[in-house]
Amino acid sequence: MKFTHKLCAAALVAAFGAAAAFPTGASAAENPLEWSGKGTINFSEDDGEDKPVDPTDPTKPVDPENPIVNPPVNPAKGPLKVIAVTDLNFGNNKVTPATGNGWEYTAAAAEVEYKDGVKVASPNFVQFKDTRADNQPNKHTLTAKATTFTNTDKNELKSAQLKFNNIKLVNGADQNQVNAAGVPATQTVETDGTTPTTFVTQDAADKGFGQFILQFGDVADNTAGDSVKLWVPSAGNKLSTNSGYSSTITWTIADAR
């Protein structure tokens, strides 16, 4: 019995010695001159402050000391968002006989105003973004609808239409994200307050990420002040000089996955 006990103890010593010589997980292929660590990164939803891209040069970084203050920025947060929209100013027009069964008026070019008070001519535009980063395609639509042009006397410009021309979609950071096939060159919005009109259909799986400018005309080719028109049919309408008419144009970006 004593012999057996001594033999077992010797076997345990030999086994322990082998374990000490070769730690768990060790192998002859390991290099004492190299060792590895890990790099990690996480992402969270884009919900920070948005700044309009300069429509006069979309590739130019926004100056944090002198940002654009007009048109104002939508204060809501989220990765799918309409950021800023220019107002459409059709000016003060003389009442004249109708031509071609109606009247047509042209919106002036927009003015972008910076914090320091400087104003620069710009095409009328809509800025929006889709910065969703959830491993799904950035598919979306951008639509507009407009209420009836009405003055303070409740007179309406019945069946009037907003006609947009020279439409261009720009992504200053990466133009490859623009699905040109989903953007018509011209579009018409009925001013009935209920009918949405689609301006952007982004249905390409490999496009649609980032911040975009949907612009109407361009300062460079002198179309900024000639690309949005208001058509008022003469049938059923009598123009009034008592007060100005106004309409609300609402732009909506929606998920299209």
From TrEMBL:
Residues annotated as domain WxL: 37-255
Highest taxon listed in the record's lineage: Bacteria
Keywords from the UniProt entry: Signal
InterPro entries the record matches: WxL_dom
Pfam families: WxL
Signal peptide per UniProt: 1-28
Region annotation (Disordered) ranges: 38-76
UniProt name for this protein: WxL domain-containing protein
Species of the source: Candidatus Enterococcus dunnyi
